[in-house]
Amino acid sequence: MEANDKRYITLILVHVLLGVFFYFFKSASSIYGFAIFLFGLYYVLKTGNKNNEVLFVSAYIVGSEVF
Fold first, then answer.
1. Phi-psi bin for 25: left (phi > 0), alpha (psi -120 to 50), beta?
2. Which is it for the CA torsion 63, 14, 1, 47, positive or negative?
3. pTM of this prediction?
4. Looking at residue 66, what is its pLDDT?
5. Cα-based torsion angle of the residue sequence 23, 18, 33, 47 in order, rounded to the nearest 10 degrees
6. pLDDT at residue 64, rounded to an integer
7. What local confidence, expressed as pLDDT, does residue 51 receive?
8. Residue 6 CA, distance from chain mean position
9. In this predicted model, what pLDDT tens digit does every residue of 5-38 receive, in sequence order?
10. CA 30, CA 65: separation in Å to the nearest integer?
11. How large is the angle between the packed helices 28-47 and 53-64, nearest 10 degrees?
């Protein structure tokens, strides 16, 4: 397996575990959504949006609305 494949599988596993966690602790999803917004804002400002990071952050925020 290549390094990218391992990283992809790790990210999927982390998100599955997050889903299980939020299934049992529903109120934590609001904190998670707010943390995504703050971290995303910091990340975009830090990188200066050189590679359109704002698109990835906004997609992640929209995806977190499922919670």
1. beta
2. positive
3. 0.76
4. 78
5. -170
6. 85
7. 92
8. 18
9. 899 999 999 999 999 999 999 889 889 989 999 9
10. 9
11. 170
Q: How far is CA 67 from CA 8, 17, 33, 55, in A?
A: 22, 14, 8, 20
Cβ atoms of residues 57 and 44 within 8 Å: yes
Residue 1 has pLDDT above 80, yes or no: no
Using CA atoms, how far apart are residues 32 and 21, in angstroms rounded to an integer?
11
pLDDT of 31: 92
Angle ∠(60,62,47) on CA atoms, nearest 5: 40
- Cα–Cα separations (whole angstroms), residue 3 to 6, 11, 13: 5, 12, 15
Give the integer Cα–Cα distance in Å for 8 and 5: 5
One-letter amino acid for residue 40 of the chain: G
